Amino acid sequence: MRASRFFISTLKEAPSDAEIVSHKLMMRAGMIKRLGSGIYTYMPLGLRVIRKVEAIVREEMNKAGAIELLMPLVQPAELWQETGRWDKMGPELMRVKDRHGRDFAIQPTSEEVITDVVRSEIKSYRQLPLNFYHIQTKFRDERRPRFGLMRGREFTMKDAYSFDRDVAGMQVSYQAMFDAYVKIFTRFGLQFRAVAADNGAIGGTGSHEFHVIASTGEDALVYCPTSDYAANMEAAEALPLLVGRAAAAEALAKTATPGKTKCESVAEFLGLPLARTVKSIALTVEKESEGEVTKENWLLLLRGDHELNEVKVSKVAGLSNFRFASEAEILEAYGSVPGYLGPVATKQPVNVVADRTVANMADFVCGANEEGFHYTGVNWGRDLQEPVVADLRNVVEGDASPDGKGVLAIERGIEVGHVFQLGTAYSAAMNATYLDEKGQPAPLQMGCYGIGVTRILGAAIEQNFDDKGIVWPDAIAPFELVLCPMGYDRSELVKLETDRLYAELQAAGVDVIVDDRGLRPGAMFADWELVGVPHRVVIGERGLKEGNLEYQGRRDAEATAVPAAEMVSFITGKLGTPGK
Amino acid sequence: MRASRFFISTLKEAPSDAEIVSHKLMMRAGMIKRLGSGIYTYMPLGLRVIRKVEAIVREEMNKAGAIELLMPLVQPAELWQETGRWDKMGPELMRVKDRHGRDFAIQPTSEEVITDVVRSEIKSYRQLPLNFYHIQTKFRDERRPRFGLMRGREFTMKDAYSFDRDVAGMQVSYQAMFDAYVKIFTRFGLQFRAVAADNGAIGGTGSHEFHVIASTGEDALVYCPTSDYAANMEAAEALPLLVGRAAAAEALAKTATPGKTKCESVAEFLGLPLARTVKSIALTVEKESEGEVTKENWLLLLRGDHELNEVKVSKVAGLSNFRFASEAEILEAYGSVPGYLGPVATKQPVNVVADRTVANMADFVCGANEEGFHYTGVNWGRDLQEPVVADLRNVVEGDASPDGKGVLAIERGIEVGHVFQLGTAYSAAMNATYLDEKGQPAPLQMGCYGIGVTRILGAAIEQNFDDKGIVWPDAIAPFELVLCPMGYDRSELVKLETDRLYAELQAAGVDVIVDDRGLRPGAMFADWELVGVPHRVVIGERGLKEGNLEYQGRRDAEATAVPAAEMVSFITGKLGTPGK
């Protein structure tokens, strides 16, 4: 490619609505252009990156036996009503009526459509397993689109769907996709981590998220550096910090703690470690029976230095649709304003659930259900009933790994892929069956597998940038190499050498762009550093007189002189990227 | 590709709603699957064809200097309001509201968005010319979607947009696109014709349509076999059939023609040739002036054997928004029921426009404005005023070519591409300007260029099929070649030879599929003939014992024995398609 025939348009300043670095850099590098909230035009440079990401995804999906098709964007509401998602999805699902008033969804994913395709195509177990995928535009009407491509409304996703006879088969398909994802993210040249994830509302039997590691990531990833254990924060199991419970040593005492509504301030006021305090979180669960709604009071107990994990809470029996209690409800159940709640002597009956660590505490501090007072020296069995015990908290760095093979570490990540064992959630709702060996209909076992194609761009930048701009990994860079001739239009020597090198590099399969725009060196270098092309060769008269060109990698502090005659093999050596 | 790892699903019968052959064959071959009215899933076989079409389009667009980007599907209404298309487009434009109630269009094309991109990016004449394109899903809410991919609602289109400083520059860009289209359609291996087209409502200065020739095509294409002249029926100029007007030989006479309301029946009744009759077509034009609507009566005169061309009518001065007169309006203006109208002695004043041929007629027959009567022996200048003369009719086979180089022929075509000189229609409405050499703002001169990617599939089939199924041209076939082993799972000899040949063909770059599904020969052959793979090699034990394989082209009546050792070069020789 010649830059004079391409479209390059860089900016000194990012627009003011760009909050995070990848958004700023993509706007400044002219990779994307905002059309509306969460809706972007992919400019020529950005599209080149997308196409490289798509090509790698496609190759590895095909190698893993998945078959590409293309499902429509505009999908009839009837299919979405079959699974109930038409109602469940809320305003995130973009809905549209055609000229006859019929309802359609603009696809956010395509479970319904693929299940409809498969239920009409698959008759027999002999046709299984099958895995279909497409790479297609998606739309989600996010409440607050932001962060450029990280949380856009219109985006590109690869979504694959596997169909198997039984759970064992589904797990084989799932593992094949998991392995393909590892290859895909490795080929991208990104640092990533696969973590076990919660299956969420869909149910099913297993799921993993793939995250690009970045300190700016929205998600906390939990892993054990000395074992294979890895999970996202929602799914990471927290073991009890106290292995056994100490015997009670103190007497129960009501202590004035005026104005101290937080564990931190109570501990400080009482001169106790924070780890001696327990925080009480009041929940309400509404139950409907014979048309009448009744409320249950629940109290969760966490050690003062711990954080609640709401996903774990929702899995406690009886709490699947909990909500936090209102101030009025708290007053009614506990007889106290919030800040002084506790499990001892509540006004109304309360279901108490203690985190595993709290269940093993002794002589702890909690609210006295009276404004301005806490109990100290609280002990299970003596001062209150033994509680229901559950894992309720987020893990923290240094927690024991649930596999017993070390301690946990935490890093930040950006979710770019998700593999999911769906089981029969969709096939049962849509009556998608096959005939088994005995000729009996059985529901298809499904898996679904997504990669956020356009999101990869943002995530790759969040992981790879410096103060000059983006630093693309070779495999997904818009160009692998830029040739920067010093005086292409002035020096015959430079022009000849540039053209020769350009032709030879192209013949060697290098994705190279020549900057023949006639910019001054400073502006030219700044453009390509901002755009993030990973390799640069400068062709100058001075060097050429000694037979040399200058090579500089995007992360190199200095340029290296390389004999002109060796440059092509030097570059192809540099580009020997893994998996290519 | 191995058929056992691919998805092939053919049908014996086409669904009843498939009206035309391409729709029937694509459904039967399992290339597309209907999701809703005019909305299809592209199944794996169909998607392969689409990808090949896209790749050829992309390569030639890039070679012609166009730059690929990707514009959003969901586009803010504000841009569409700037050009007035939000109101003008009617229900064909699919409109959608987001969660905040803001209006969006699902793109049918992207003139507004690209003009918005360019007006913010282009400052100076130095940045011009530019040509951007994308290949993207489009949606048009057709009133009556039908014919499979020929008139779908969701479809894929390549749309390109050029931006130039002046008309001369735009014409250069236009010619480059025209030339690229010729290369693209040639590479597809389709018979096609580029015809001059009418510019329609947008105005502008020129346009051509590219049609795939097919006897089932919706459009009539006019061309001169002995010159370069070619136009669609709307745009093809009709010269006067009578070069000079004969002198009047008959007297004007009112003649009873009871019940004869058509030229054909009048001519038969009077024993005259149809070419002596003139048909009168009454129009009404409403004009608003100072809030008052007045009606004008217009009468168009065509020779009895000719057809009206409404596009030509709309270009006659005063007739840009004509409509056909109602029966009441006719009675009021002419004093007669329809079927007996004529230009002589009308009840109210009427503007008469005669087709070029009618203007040169003498002693002709026309209605007498009295039920059951016609005039015969009518002559211009004597019996009525000389008329306004215009080209009002469709050309017919044998008409003189407007370039004076032969006579016209007519064939049927399917429109698959359109190039269009837009001029400043969009740039003026959206204030998209650049600064010229003097620093003065000037509007950008635009062109737009479309190719209906998915429509190509339907058109290619309408041109290339037989009673067994589709016959794809090599360049866009889902696979170039199918290997049909006779007993792949039973004969070690056949398996070894099949695997060897498959590996060698792949290494030679042939897009080959092996049918390893274990079907019987008849079913296997029928599948691939229906799917339309253009080349087939049968590997059988009997032939192999003599060192031979059987080759058969999709249009060949018989198979040919080819020595196994020569098959790879035989096939690569066959695939030496033009432009590849």
Automatic annotation (TrEMBL), chains A, B:
It is found in: Cytoplasm. Gene3D superfamilies: Anticodon-binding domain, Bira Bifunctional Protein, Domain 2, YbaK/aminoacyl-tRNA synthetase-associated domain. GO terms for cellular component: cytosol. Keywords: Aminoacyl-tRNA synthetase, ATP-binding, Cytoplasm, Ligase, Nucleotide-binding, Protein biosynthesis. This is Proline--tRNA ligase. Catalyzes the attachment of proline to tRNA(Pro) in a two-step reaction: proline is first activated by ATP to form Pro-AMP and then transferred to the acceptor end of tRNA(Pro). As ProRS can inadvertently accommodate and process non-cognate amino acids such as alanine and cysteine, to avoid such errors it has two additional distinct editing activities against alanine. One activity is designated as 'pretransfer' editing and involves the tRNA(Pro)-independent hydrolysis of activated Ala-AMP. Belongs to the class-II aminoacyl-tRNA synthetase family. ProS type 1 subfamily. Homodimer. It comes from Massilia forsythiae. Residues 33-473 form the Aminoacyl-transfer RNA synthetases class-II family profile domain. GO terms for molecular function: aminoacyl-tRNA deacylase activity; ATP binding; proline-tRNA ligase activity. Consists of three domains: the N-terminal catalytic domain, the editing domain and the C-terminal anticodon-binding domain. Its EC number is 6.1.1.15. It holds the Pfam family tRNA-synt_2b. It catalyses: tRNA(Pro) + L-proline + ATP = L-prolyl-tRNA(Pro) + AMP + diphosphate. GO terms for biological process: prolyl-tRNA aminoacylation.
